[in-house]
Design a protein that fits this description.
mainly alpha, two-stranded antiparallel sheet, 17 helices
Length: 511
């Protein structure tokens, strides 16, 4: 029996690596598009100003990209070291998008990033611009396949379970690239574009505060604000699509996101609220909130375009709701145990050569396989994720998203007078960490909200974890903590040094 401490430390180590990795990735994706756009301006206008502007942001892109690769590699290796049961169970499917990412995306990035950095005076303008865009596309394709793999964990599809090997095998590659995966890709990448825009505006505001390179700063702010506003509006659209998919595929996550303990018809949407820490159980009659601002019927409407649509709460999903066709969690757990037991009996019957019995047991396994993962759940309440962490992370992400839209609009409205408003420059500068907080909060919703599942409904984390000594995971956790912190400090230090040096252009250069 695997100790809870091992599971907790394994999850903590993976979360640590993912958190640090996502510090580097979004800036790479966001700056990639912005530097490509600025170099496009250089090609179309012929102005050296845009060339040097693009080169400056490319320098920051390169610093961040180089240090970010290390955390990504470690993250992938952890699937084999810390989650070997998971890797065995679904490696045939999960490994495919990661392999494609390595073959296609890494190849593109490794090939064209060298031309981008070292080819300014060695290749033609069009060739160099092509290399810059292909570097950005390569980084985005890399994100695509990683997010396809992650989305498959949220919504497994395109597979068939092989009882002889006890593995899930891919039968439909295109089903793996599900609508869930496509929406997750766009939502995640566009959120990185928003961060890139906030970063460019914030850094440019610092130059205005220091009364340096004002032309460069104002031009970068204008490009960043336009790009950021367009990206934010697209983010609203993909966020809405994501919420609808969560409601359909992961209703428990949605309930946690909204602090919805008891569902119903015409459910309100929480705008701002404080959870009641005194509510100790999902069936506790205490009010879930100490304070709330809510919009009547809006959650039902946004999920199903119907103000009276039914949205299940945590109690409906744990205790069941016969009227709405929801099975109790206890029933799912029992059917999952039947599937696991039938699989074991199938294996034994196969070894004994009793093919008739083996077919009968496999039929039972197939009948109950939709609940296979529930068979490893010890208590129905284990199916409830951390409501406070999921709820607050979701609302922090949404509120900050609205704040960035407002910031971009104000930056554009005052673009001609931006240099006069120090308050706005300070606001934009200190918005940079807020963009990172929003991104981390989004991932907390995605990953904490689906607990206890490593693969939704198919494999919980207690069945996915490797059988390691807890002390080994603890030691590597702290090693990674120190290593990643050093990398982060180095990244920030080198970025700050490059920013202080500034772009290599004259105060007024349009030649």
């Amino acid at each position: 029996m695997i100790e809870n401490s091992l599971i907790d430390w394994s999850r903590a180590q993976f979360a640590l690596t993912a958190i640090y990795h996502w510090i580097f990735v979004p800036l790479t994706l966001g700056l990639g598009v912005l530097m490509s756009v600025m170099e496009t301006f250089y090609l179309t206008t012929g102005k050296t100003f845009w060339k040097e502007t693009a080169r400056f942001w490319q320098k920051l892109f390169g610093i961040n990209f180089a240090i970010g690769v290390a955390t990504g590699l470690i993250l992938e290796f952890e699937f084999g070291t810390n989650w070997s049961n998971y890797s065995w169970f679904v490696g045939d499917i999960f490994g495919a998008p990661l392999a494609i990412e390595g073959v296609i995306a890494f190849f593109m990035e490794a090939t064209f990033i060298a031309i981008m950095f070292f080819g300014w005076n060695k290749v033609g303008k069009k060739t160099h611009l092509t290399a810059t865009w292909l570097t950005t596309v390569g980084a985005t394709i890399s994100a695509l396949w990683i997010l396809v793999a992650n989305a498959w964990m949220q919504y497994p599809a395109g597979m068939e379970f092989n009882p002889d090997t006890v593995r899930n095998e891919m039968v439909d590659f295109w089903a793996v690239i599900s609508p869930v995966a496509i929406n997750k890709f766009f939502h995640t990448v566009i959120s990185a574009w928003v961060l890139g825009a906030v970063f460019v505006i914030g850094v440019s505001s610092w130059y205005l505060l220091k009364k340096r390179q004002s032309e460069f700063a104002l031009a970068s702010i204008k490009v960043g604000a336009v790009f950021g506003l367009l990206s934010s509006l697209l983010l609203l659209w993909t966020g809405h699509g994501s919420a609808q998919q969560v409601a359909d595929k992961q209703p428990m996550k949605l309930a946690a996101m909204e602090g919805l303990y008891k569902g119903g018809d015409g459910v309100e949407l929480i705008g701002l609220a404080v959870l009641n820490p005194g509510k100790e159980a999902y069936n506790d009659p205490a009010d879930p909130f100490l304070f709330k601002i809510a919009f009547p019927n809006m959650l039902s409407y946004l999920i199903d375009w119907d103000t009276k649509s039914f949205v299940p709460g945590i109690a409906d999903l744990i205790d069941g709701n016969a009227e709405k066709g929801l099975l109790p969690a206890a029933t799912k757990i029992e059917r999952g145990k039947q599937a696991i037991e039938a699989l074991a009996k199938y294996k034994q019957a196969t070894e004994d050569g009793d093919l008739e019995a083996a077919l009968q047991y496999d039929a039972v396994r197939k009948e109950n396989f939709a609940y296979f993962g529930y068979g490893y759940i010890k208590d129905p309440t284990d199916l409830i994720p951390s409501v406070p962490l999921t709820f607050y992370s979701f609302h922090v992400m949404v509120i900050l998203g609205g704040y960035f839209i407002l910031m971009f609009i104000v930056a554009l409205a005052l673009s001609k007078k931006f240099a006069r408003h120090k308050w706005l420059q300070w606001v934009c500068l200190w918005s940079i960490p807020l963009a990172y907080i929003a991104g981390q909060a989004g991932w907390a919703v995605a990953e904490v909200g689906r607990q206890p599942w490593a693969i939704q409904d198919l494999m919980p984390v207690n069945a996915a974890v490797s059988k390691l000594a807890t002390s080994s995971v603890q030691v590597t956790f702290f090693i990674f903590l120190v290593l990643f912190t050093i990398l982060l400090i180095a990244d920030i230090g080198i970025l700050v040094k490059a920013i202080k040096k500034g772009p290599e252009l004259a105060e007024s250069s349009n030649a």
